[in-house]
Each structure stands twice: as structure tokens, then as C-alpha cells.
């Protein structure tokens, strides 16, 4: 259950941003989570609901964009079909992941009178 | 003024971050990588299920490399020091990272272990992760390569069931191959599964029990070691990589 450790890092980061911007209450966090990031969105939400209490994120909402994985050839940029062998059918090069492993904090919506 | 949700509340502001949530771990991993590179050490993050044969592979590696390579290891273990005891007995200088209930190693735990490690004079340093095919894949530790052990008794479909782990692997060691005659295990099926989750899939078949395939594994490791010319003088290397510390290095 590494989702708990990810939530701990997330709340630390939000506390840091709040200190920098003179923020007080956090209303919403926007995250981007790839389907091949190894993070389960439901477990992340459960962990957040547990850990946000008595932190600056108490009562805050998680808005999560999930990102489907995509692979392409690094040379000819041809996209591969889902579930295919991860090798370009034209030139034989190993594919490169284009998206799908994101674990990103995009934006914080917070009460910050000084901004 | 909140411009994103339309609530019109004048005191809610959007703060753009656009960073990885694990950026602190990534920074610590970069620091560990500098340590390893500064010492001219090849660092390997060895992952796999509990019982996949991580410790047994390292024991067989030590036997095959005796007199040729100086090996070191830290073992992530929830509750005991059994793995490090086995590795020390096999001739690998080893210590344990006791993780308690944590399911993975992170860069901070490895850094702490490096500072208390009894030797700076190793050619290859193995980070034997906690037995788990999920959580360890997410955390960069500062390794040069990820190696995943998959034993023949786990079944051919594990790469498809745990794609994140195998996607991050630079090499898969198919272990316990001496058991294949006793099982309905299809090596071709596991190769096909790997090709669908692991770009540039590479797998070596090994048996720690018979020693089969261990030479090819040693060769794979040797190929990844830094060239001697790239290795700085070891006596000075520890402080040669220009990073900021909030603490002192211990001298040995």
C-alpha cells in the first residue's frame, strides 16, 4: 500500500506551497495519474481521506485525471496498439512510453488572500 | 479569484505546481546515484516476489564471482536480518534495511543505509528490495539498472498481471530453471508476455541451485560496470560529487 506514502508526500508538498503563498484552507487538488504509474486511484482516494484530517488538506477534494498508456516508436513516432509487442513493426526499435506513468500534482486551489 | 471552478469565491486561487508527487524521492535518488557513480560502483535494484530467489541468486553470484569482484548489498526486510546474514556468509558485505510494515524501499532508506555501510570499496552493489511485485517499482533508489527475478513456479502470466514492475526492468532473471522439467512451464509464453510490457525485453534463465546461467548474468553485470578510466580514486570519491549535505559522511 504505497498509496499512503504517496499521500504523505502530496500533503507535505501542499503544506510547502501553502507556506510559500500564504495559503490557508485547501479546497481542491488536481492530480494526473497514469494507468501504468503503479498508483491505484481508489486506494489513493482512501489514503487521502484518512491522512488529510487535521492537515491543511482537511476537507479538500481530490480531482484526478487518469491517463491511458500510449507507446510509440522513438524513431518514426508510429503509435502501437494496446497490448501489442512493444517493438516498432516497421523498424524494429523498442517502443517508448509516450504517456501513462504520470504521478503529478498539477494544481492546488486554496484560500490565499496574499496572491 | 477562482478561475477554474467558476465558484466566484475571490479568496480561492489556483496554484500551478505541475510536478511529480515523488519529486523529493527523485532528488534523494539522484543524490544516491551521485554516490554510486562517484565511487565507480554499479548499483543494481533487485526486485521480485517473496520467494522468487533474489537472495539465492546473489549467493550464486558471489560464488561465481569469488576472487574477481567485490560485492556489497543492502537487503530490505520487513522483520528479520536473515537475508543479510545469508549474503554475508556467502561473502557479500551486507546490511539490512528493516522496513517494519513498509512494502518497498525508498531513496531515503537506501541513503541512510549507505551512510552506515561498512565498506566503500565495492565493485557491484545490490539493493535487494522488499519482496513485492507492485510497490517497489515506483521508487527510484539511485540504481544504474533494475533487475526483476521471476521464478518458474510463479507462472508465465506474471508480466501481464504486474506490467508496471516489468516495464521498469532492464533485465528479467527467470529463476529456478532447474525445476522446469517438473512443471508445465512454457518459457516461450513468458517471453511473449514480457515483450508486451517491457520495451527491449531481455531475459536470462538462471538456476542458483545448479549454477546454470549465472555466468551469463555475471557477464551482463560486467558489461554495465563503469570503465576503469571513469572510476575516480576511491579515497577521494565520497566527497567528489559536489552535493549539499545536512550531515557529515562517516570516515572509514
Quickly list its features.
heterodimer; A: 115 residues; alpha+beta; hypothetical protein PF0899 fold; 3-stranded mixed sheet; two-stranded antiparallel ribbon; 5 strands; B: 252 residues; alpha/beta; Rossmann fold; 7-stranded parallel sheet; globular; disordered C terminus
What would your notes on this structure say?
The complex is a heterodimer of chains A (115) and B (252). In chain A, strand 1, helix 2 and strand 2 form a beta-alpha-beta unit. Chain A has a three-stranded mixed beta sheet, covered by helices on one side. In chain A, helix 1 packs across helix 2. By secondary structure, chain A is an alpha+beta fold. Chain A has a domain of 75 residues: 2-Layer Sandwich (hypothetical protein PF0899 fold). Chain A has two helices and five strands. Chain B has a seven-stranded parallel beta sheet, with helices on both faces. In chain B, helix 7 links the parallel strand 7 and strand 8. Chain B has nine helices and eight strands. Chain B has a single domain, classed as P-loop containing nucleotide triphosphate hydrolases (Rossmann fold). The C terminus of chain B is likely disordered. Classes of the chains: A alpha+beta (115), B alpha/beta (252). At the A-B interface, helix 1, strand 1 and strand 5 of A face strand 1, helix 1, helix 6 and helix 7 of B. Strand 5 of chain A pairs antiparallel with strand 1 of chain B.
Short description:
Chain A has helices at residues 3-21, 41-51, and strands at 26-34, 61-67, 70-72, 96-99, 103-111. With 115 residues, chain A is α+β, with helices and mostly antiparallel strands. In chain A, α2 (41-51) links the parallel β1 and β2 (61-67).
Amino acid at each position: 500500500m504505497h498509496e499512503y506514502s504517496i499521500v504523505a508526500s502530496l500533503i507535505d508538498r501542499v503544506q510547502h506551497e501553502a507556506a510559500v503563498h500564504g495559503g490557508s484552507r485547501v479546497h481542491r487538488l488536481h492530480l494526473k495519474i497514469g494507468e501504468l504509474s503503479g498508483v491505484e486511484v481508489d486506494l489513493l482516494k482512501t489514503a487521502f481521506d484518512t491522512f488529510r484530517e487535521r492537515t491543511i488538506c482537511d476537507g479538500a477534494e481530490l480531482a484526478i485525471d487518469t491517463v491511458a498508456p500510449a507507446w510509440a516508436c522513438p524513431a518514426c513516432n508510429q503509435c502501437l496498439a494496446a497490448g501489442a509487442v512493444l517493438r516498432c513493426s516497421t523498424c524494429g526499435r523498442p517502443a517508448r512510453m509516450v504517456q501513462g506513468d504520470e504521478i503529478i500534482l498539477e494544481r492546488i486551489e486554496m484560500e490565499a488572500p496574499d496572491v | 479569484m477562482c478561475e477554474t471552478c467558476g465558484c466566484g469565491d475571490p479568496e480561492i486561487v489556483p496554484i500551478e505546481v505541475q510536478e511529480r508527487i515523488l519529486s523529493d524521492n527523485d532528488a534523494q535518488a539522484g543524490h544516491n546515484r551521485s554516490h554510486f557513480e562517484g565511487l565507480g560502483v554499479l548499483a543494481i535494484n533487485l526486485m521480485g516476489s517473496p520467494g522468487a530467489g533474489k537472495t539465492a541468486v546473489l549467493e550464486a553470484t558471489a560464488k561465481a564471482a569469488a576472487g574477481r569482484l567485490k560485492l556489497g548489498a543492502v537487503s530490505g526486510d520487513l522483520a528479520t536480518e536473515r537475508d543479510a546474514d545469508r549474503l554475508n556468509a556467502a561473502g557479500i558485505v551486507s546490511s539490512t534495511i528493516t522496513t517494519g510494515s513498509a512494502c518497498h524501499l525508498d531513496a531515503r532508506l537506501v541513503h541512510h543505509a549507505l551512510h552506515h555501510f561498512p565498506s566503500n570499496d565495492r565493485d557491484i552493489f545490490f539493493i535487494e528490495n522488499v519482496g513485492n511485485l507492485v510497490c517497489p517499482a515506483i521508487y527510484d533508489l539511485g540504481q544504474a539498472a533494475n533487475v526483476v527475478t521471476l521464478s518458474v513456479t510463479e507462472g508465465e502470466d506474471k508480466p501481464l498481471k504486474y506490467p508496471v514492475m516489468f516495464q521498469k526492468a532492464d533485465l528479467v532473471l527467470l529463476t529456478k530453471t532447474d525445476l522446469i522439467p517438473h512443471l508445465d512451464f512454457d518459457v516461450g509464453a513468458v517471453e511473449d508476455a514480457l515483450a508486451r510490457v517491457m520495451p527491449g525485453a531481455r531475459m536470462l534463465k538462471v538456476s542458483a541451485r545448479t549454477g546454470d546461467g549465472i555466468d551469463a548474468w555475471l557477464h551482463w553485470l560486467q558489461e554495465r560496470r563503469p570503465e576503469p578510466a571513469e572510476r575516480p580514486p576511491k579515497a577521494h570519491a565520497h566527497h567528489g560529487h559536489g552535493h549539499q549535505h545536512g550531515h557529515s559522511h562517516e570516515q572509514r
